[in-house]
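sry for the spam today, last one i promise. C-alpha cells for design, 876 residues
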C-alpha cells in the first residue's frame, strides 16, 4: 500500500514538474503579437469587419491568464468606417474555474472607448450581426481553431487559450484543423454549459455616437463612465452610469447619472433593471429640463415581447420652448403595476395616474388622467372607468374638457366600451359653447381596426347677441378607422337652425392624410354660429325736438393714447402638408349680410395651395361664377364673374350703407400677398370692371348741383347767393341709365381707366386725377359733368350750360367724402365773366357781401395753386 502511495505521489510530482516546465517553455517562446494578422483575418472572415490592433498585446498565464491590448478598432460590416475603438483594455482570467467550464474574469478596465451606432433606412442597426450571431471566434471551423483543439498541452491550457483568443494558440499546440469540428461535436454539453463570470467592469471616458437615417436624428454621449459589480449571466449585478448627452440636429446638452440592479439572461433573452434611479438635467431639444427622473423596476423579454413595470415613477420638470412654449412644466406618470405580454395577448394596469400642469403664453393648463384597474386577456376584458380632465385658463377664456371611458368588455382580440363620453365647455366673454358627445366604441388591437359606432351629441351656444340668447343643434354619426388599410371614414348628420347638414369624409394614408369629403346642407345661416358685431344705433331725434347745446367740457389733461394693437397675423403653413378634395352644396347660405342660393363649389388643397373652384350660386336676382385660391406663402387670387346682380342689397350687406343701386354685371380679377389684413390690402393688384344699369348714385345729385350753379350765376350781384352742397347726403341721388367702371389696382392704389355715366339729363366721364387709395381709404376723382337738354329745363339758365363739361372734384375719406365745382375750369363765357366780376371773391366771402351758407374751398395743394392766388379762388 505504501509503495503504491509513493508511486502516486511521485507521478503527481512528475506531472506537476512537466506542466511547470511546459508552461515555462510556453511563456519564454510565445509571442502573442505574432498572431495579430491571424486574428484580424479571422474577424474579417467571420464578420466581414476589419480589426486593427495598433498597440502591443501583453499576455501572462500565472497566477492568472492576463491580457492587455492597446489602440484597437473595429470597422462597420463591409465598410472602412469605424464602428468601435478603445485606447487600452486590461483583464485577467482565473485558471481554476476553467476546469469547471466557467470563465471567471477579474476586473475589466477599458479607457478611451468609442462607438458609432447607426440605424439605416430599413431600421437595421450596424451592430445587428454582432448581436444575433455568436461572438465566439471558435465557431469559425474553417479557420482551424476550436475551443477544445489544444489537447496537446492539456485541458488547462486549452480552456485558457480559448478564453483569451484562439488566434494566439501556436499551430504546434492547436492540433490539426480537421480535428476541430469532431472535437466540437464530441463536447456539445461543454459548449452549452459554458458560463461567463466577470468580477467587475470599469469603463472611463467613453463616447457613444448615434445617427438615425430614418428620422435624421443624431446625438452622442460624452464623458461616459460605466461601473458594474460582478457580472454573471442570469444573476443580478449593480450598474452605475453617468455622462453627458449632446446633439447637433436637435440641440441637446444634458448631464445624466443613474444606478440600477441589472440582470441579463442571453439564452432566454430576458433583461431586467430593478431599483432604477436615473436623473437628467439640461437642454433636450425644445425642453429645458430642470429635472427628469425615472424610478422603479422594468423587465423585458425579447422572445415574447413582454414588458412589465412596477412602482414606476417618471417625472419631467422644466420649460418647453417651440411654437407653443410652456413655462414651469411639471408632468408626472405613476403606475404601481403594468404588464404587457403580446405573446399571451395580456394587459394589466393598476392605478395608473398622469398629472401635468404649466404656464403657456395664453394662460395655464392642468391635465389629469386616471386608470384605476384594467385587465385584458384572450378570455375577458374588464376594468373600472377611465377618466381624464383638461382645464385651460387664458386671459379671455376658460376651457374645460372631460373624457370618460366606461363599461370595458370583450376580450383581447375585440375590446369594447359601453360608452365613450366627451364633455367640453368654453367660456369666452359673454359667449359659452358646450359640446357633449357619447358613443359605444370598439377596437381590435391585432387587426388595428375600430371606431365609434353610434355617436350622438349636442352643441349648445349661449350668447346675448343670438336670437333668444342661445341656440342648440344635435348631431349623430359614426367614425371608423382601419390602421392596416390606413383608412378613416366618418359620417355626421346634424340640424342647425332647422337646416339639415350631411357631412361625409374619407381619409387615407393617415401618416400624410389624403382627405375627401362631401358637405350638403339646406338653409344654413352661419350668423347663428358667428353673429356679426352689433354697432350701437345713433339716438333718433323726433320732429320738433330741439337739442340743447352741450356745455363745453372742462379741459382735462390729455391721456396717453393706448398703444396700437398689432394686426392679426394669418398662418396658412398647414397648407404645405394638406391634401384635401371635396364638394360643397347648399340650397341657401347666409354669412354676415350676404345670402347665396343654390351654392355649389369644389375644394382642392395640394402642393401648398387651397383652391375653391367652380363656385356657382345665385346672388340677389343674378348669378355668379368664381374661383379662389390661397397658398401657404400667403398668396390670394380671385376671379369672379357676376351677372344681373341687384346692387342695393349687396351694397347694404357688404358696406352696411347705401351708395349705389341698380342691376350690375361684374368682372373681377385680383391678387395679393401678405400675412395681415393691412399687408393684403397694400399688395392688392388686378382689375375690376362693372356695368350698372338703371340705378342711382346715392349721396350726390349732379342735376341739383348744376341747378345750384345756375342759381349762383343768376344771383351773382344780388347780394344773396344760394348754398351749394359740398358733402355727400343720403337724401341726394343721381339716377342713371348706365354706369361703366374700369378700375386698375396696383399695390393697393387704384386708377379709374374708365368712368362713364349716362342719364337723361347729364353725361359724366372721368377725368384727372382719378385715383383711389385703398390703404388709407382716400379717393381723389374728377368728374366731367355735361348737362343735356330735357323737356323741363329748356327755358332755364341751364340751357346756357348745356353741352358744357363742368368739372366736379370728389375727394376725402371713404366714410365722409366731399365734392366741389371747379369754376375756373368751366369753359363757358358766362362763368368766365362772372369770375372776372368777382364771383370767386363773393363765394369765398372776401367781399363781405352775400349771405347764406357758402361752400368753403377745399385746399388745393398743387404747385400752380400755391403760385397763383387767383387760380386758388377759381378752384373755390
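last one done:
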Amino acid at each position: 500500500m505504501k509503495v503504491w502511495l509513493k508511486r502516486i505521489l511521485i507521478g503527481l510530482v512528475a506531472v506537476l514538474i512537466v506542466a511547470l516546465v511546459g508552461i515555462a517553455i510556453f511563456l519564454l517562446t510565445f509571442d502573442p503579437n505574432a498572431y495579430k494578422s491571424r486574428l484580424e483575418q479571422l474577424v474579417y472572415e467571420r464578420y466581414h469587419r476589419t480589426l486593427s490592433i495598433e498597440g502591443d498585446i501583453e499576455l501572462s498565464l500565472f497566477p492568472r491568464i492576463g491580457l492587455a491590448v492597446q489602440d484597437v478598432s473595429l470597422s462597420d460590416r463591409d465598410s472602412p468606417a469605424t464602428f468601435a475603438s478603445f485606447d487600452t483594455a486590461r483583464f485577467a482570467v482565473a485558471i481554476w474555474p476553467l476546469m469547471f467550464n466557467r470563465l471567471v474574469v477579474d476586473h475589466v478596465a477599458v479607457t478611451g472607448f468609442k462607438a458609432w451606432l447607426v440605424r439605416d433606412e430599413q431600421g437595421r442597426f450596424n451592430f445587428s450581426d454582432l448581436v444575433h450571431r455568436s461572438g465566439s471566434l471558435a465557431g469559425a471551423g474553417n479557420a482551424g481553431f476550436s475551443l477544445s483543439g489544444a489537447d496537446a498541452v492539456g485541458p488547462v491550457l486549452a480552456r485558457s487559450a480559448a478564453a483569451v483568443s484562439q488566434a494566439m494558440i501556436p499551430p504546434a499546440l492547436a492540433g490539426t484543423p480537421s480535428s476541430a469540428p469532431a472535437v466540437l461535436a464530441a463536447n456539445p454539453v461543454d459548449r452549452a454549459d459554458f458560463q461567463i463570470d466577470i468580477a467587475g467592469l470599469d469603463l472611463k471616458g467613453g463616447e457613444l455616437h448615434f445617427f438615425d437615417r430614418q428620422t435624421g436624428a443624431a446625438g452622442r454621449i460624452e464623458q461616459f463612465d460605466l461601473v458594474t459589480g460582478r457580472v454573471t449571466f442570469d444573476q443580478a449585478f449593480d450598474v452605475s452610469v453617468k455622462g453627458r448627452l449632446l446633439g447637433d440636429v436637435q440641440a441637446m446638452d444634458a448631464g445624466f447619472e443613474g444606478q440600477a440592479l441589472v440582470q441579463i439572461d442571453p439564452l432566454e433573452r430576458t433583461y431586467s433593471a430593478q431599483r432604477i434611479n436615473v436623473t437628467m438635467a439640461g437642454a433636450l431639444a425644445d425642453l429645458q429640463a430642470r429635472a427628469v427622473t425615472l424610478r422603479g423596476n422594468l423587465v423585458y423579454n425579447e422572445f415574447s415581447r413582454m414588458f412589465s413595470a412596477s412602482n414606476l415613477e417618471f417625472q419631467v420638470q422644466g420649460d418647453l420652448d417651440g411654437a407653443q412654449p410652456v413655462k414651469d412644466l411639471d408632468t408626472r406618470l405613476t403606475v404601481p403595476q403594468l404588464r404587457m405580454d403580446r405573446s399571451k395577448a395580456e394587459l394589466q394596469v393598476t392605478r395608473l395616474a398622469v398629472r401635468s400642469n404649466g404656464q403657456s403664453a395664453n394662460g395655464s393648463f392642468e391635465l389629469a388622467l386616471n386608470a384605476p384597474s384594467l385587465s385584458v386577456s384572450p378570455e375577458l376584458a374588464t376594468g373600472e372607468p377611465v377618466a381624464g380632465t383638461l382645464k385651460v385658463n387664458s386671459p379671455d377664456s376658460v376651457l374645460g374638457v372631460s373624457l370618460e371611458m366606461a363599461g370595458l368588455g370583450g376580450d383581447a382580440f375585440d375590446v369594447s366600451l359601453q360608452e365613450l363620453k366627451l364633455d367640453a365647455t368654453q367660456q369666452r366673454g359673454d359667449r359659452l359653447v358646450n359640446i357633449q358627445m357619447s358613443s359605444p366604441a370598439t377596437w381590435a388591437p391585432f387587426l388595428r381596426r375600430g371606431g365609434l359606432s353610434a355617436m350622438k351629441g349636442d352643441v349648445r351656444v349661449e350668447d346675448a347677441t343670438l336670437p333668444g340668447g342661445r341656440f342648440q343643434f344635435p348631431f349623430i354619426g359614426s367614425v371608423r378607422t382601419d390602421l392596416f388599410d390606413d383608412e378613416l371614414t366618418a359620417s355626421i348628420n346634424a340640424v342647425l337652425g332647422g337646416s339639415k347638414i350631411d357631412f361625409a369624409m374619407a381619409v387615407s394614408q393617415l401618416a400624410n392624410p389624403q382627405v375627401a369629403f362631401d358637405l350638403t346642407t339646406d338653409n344654413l345661416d352661419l350668423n347663428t354660429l358667428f353673429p356679426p358685431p352689433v354697432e350701437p344705433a345713433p339716438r333718433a331725434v323726433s320732429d320738433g325736438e330741439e337739442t340743447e347745446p352741450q356745455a363745453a367740457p372742462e379741459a382735462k389733461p390729455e391721456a396717453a393714447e393706448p398703444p396700437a394693437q398689432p394686426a392679426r397675423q394669418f398662418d396658412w403653413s398647414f397648407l404645405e402638408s394638406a391634401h384635401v378634395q371635396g364638394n360643397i352644396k347648399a340650397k341657401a347660405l347666409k354669412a354676415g349680410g350676404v345670402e347665396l342660393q343654390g351654392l355649389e363649389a369644389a375644394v382642392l388643397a395640394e402642393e401648398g395651395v387651397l383652391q375653391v373652384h367652380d363656385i356657382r350660386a345665385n346672388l340677389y336676382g343674378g348669378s355668379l361664377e368664381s374661383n379662389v385660391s390661397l397658398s401657404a406663402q400667403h398668396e390670394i387670387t380671385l376671379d369672379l364673374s357676376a351677372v344681373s346682380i341687384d346692387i342695393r342689397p349687396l351694397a347694404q350687406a357688404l358696406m352696411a350703407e347705401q351708395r349705389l343701386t341698380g342691376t350690375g354685371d361684374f368682372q373681377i380679377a385680383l391678387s395679393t400677398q401678405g400675412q395681415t389684413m393691412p399687408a393684403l390690402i397694400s399688395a392688392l393688384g388686378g382689375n375690376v370692371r362693372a356695368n350698372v344699369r338703371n340705378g342711382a348714385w346715392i349721396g350726390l345729385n349732379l342735376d341739383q348741383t348744376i341747378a345750384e350753379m345756375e342759381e349762383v350765376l343768376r344771383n351773382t350781384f344780388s347780394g344773396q347767393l344760394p348754398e351749394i352742397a359740398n358733402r355727400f347726403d343720403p337724401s341726394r341721388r343721381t339716377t342713371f341709365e348706365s354706369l361703366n367702371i374700369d378700375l386698375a389696382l396696383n399695390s393697393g392704389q387704384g386708377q379709374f381707366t374708365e368712368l362713364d355715366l349716362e342719364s337723361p339729363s347729364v353725361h359724366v366721364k372721368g377725368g384727372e386725377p382719378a385715383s383711389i387709395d385703398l390703404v388709407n381709404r382716400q379717393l381723389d376723382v374728377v368728374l366731367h359733368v355735361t348737362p343735356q337738354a330735357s323737356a323741363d329745363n329748356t327755358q332755364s339758365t341751364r340751357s346756357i350750360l348745356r353741352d358744357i363739361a363742368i368739372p366736379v372734384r370728389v375727394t376725402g375719406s371713404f366714410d365722409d367724402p366731399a365734392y366741389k365745382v371747379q369754376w375756373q375750369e368751366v369753359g363757358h363765357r358766362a362763368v368766365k365773366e362772372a369770375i372776372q366780376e368777382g364771383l370767386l371773391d363773393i363765394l369765398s366771402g372776401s367781399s363781405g357781401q352775400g349771405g347764406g351758407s357758402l361752400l368753403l374751398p377745399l385746399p388745393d395743394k398743387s404747385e400752380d395753386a400755391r403760385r397763383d392766388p387767383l387760380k386758388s379762388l377759381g378752384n373755390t
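The CA atoms of residues 148 and 187 lie 9 Å apart. ok im logging off now
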